[in-house]
Amino acid sequence: MTEQLFVEHSLRRIEGAFRVRVLDDALATGNPPVAAIYGEPVNDCLVRIHSRCVYSEILGSVDCDCHDQVQQAKAMITAEGSGVIVYLDQEGRGSGLLAKARGYEYSQLHQADTFTSYRALHLPDDSRDYAAAADLLESLGLSRVKLLTNNPEKVNALESRGIIVKREPSIVPVSDAAREYLEAKREHGHLIPSLTDS
User: Which of 63, 128, 129, 179 is catalytic?
Assistant: First the structure.
């Protein structure tokens, strides 16, 4: 990891305080990445890398599983006594909120999944970058993690930085609408069991 500065403080919660570490990177654009640190993480602790989803996390949408995944991660990390959630400002699989809104609009007009919609709008399937997540984990001295994810790209990103990853599936109950969303993600490489028969 190149030399990085960060700002750190505590954040009180009913379930137990987190330390919050925000990267102070002059080259970063948009909101910087943040790590919510519970307890004293050591190698092989639970980690969740999570990209912002304003629709589910703020507006209560049930079209995806993002809100429930991060809530599950917080509960699991709290139960284990330590761990890290890295939160990245990468809305709309990295294309931004406006692109995400256009994708939703196209999907609703054409009964298409979001991957089809993004391609119709000449957007990449997924342009997220996880280098900052690796930076934060390295700043905590972590070289081995249990990563709560269904996305092999997150695993690849950490492993390319020399962090040893044991993948832990992140499966939560979902609505019928979210089942279609997850089936599309599964067809595009995410490690999600088929939901059509469940």
Answer: 128
pLDDT at 198 over 70: no
pLDDT for residue 197 is more than 60: no
Q: What is the pTM of this model?
A: 0.87
Is the distance from CB of 66 to CB of 91 less than 8 angstroms?
no
Residue 188 zone, left/alpha/beta (φ > 0; ψ -120 to 50; rest): alpha
Looking at the chain, the whole-number percentage of residues with pLDDT higher than 70 is 87
Identify whether 128 is a catalytic site residue: yes
Q: What is the rounded CA–CA span in Å between residue 160 and residue 147? A: 14
Whether 144 is catalytic is no
How far apart CA 159 and CA 143 sit, in angstroms, is 10
pLDDT digits (tens, 9 = 90+) for 138-169: 999 999 999 999 999 999 999 999 999 999 98
Give me the catalytic one of 126, 135, 144, 161. Answer: 126
